[in-house]
């Protein structure tokens, strides 16, 4: 199933200049795995060394933060979205 992935423009260097692209996966977990497989530079920006989503990163499956999901083996549907939000701080 093709889903749309959106990443902040700050991470486009990790995705070949793309801020919106499609992935083909059957489940949300497969899409997340494929995201890192296709764009390995994203791993350090999105996940800690222990595999946890970094504190300043929010990953949304459609309108739901994946941190709120009990299981990531959700079957994807046409038109689903995976959205990466990354907090930026500065002064």
From TrEMBL:
It comes from the Bacteria. It holds the Pfam family ThiS. SUPFAM superfamilies: MoaD/ThiS. This is Molybdopterin synthase subunit MoaD. It comes from Paenibacillus germinis.
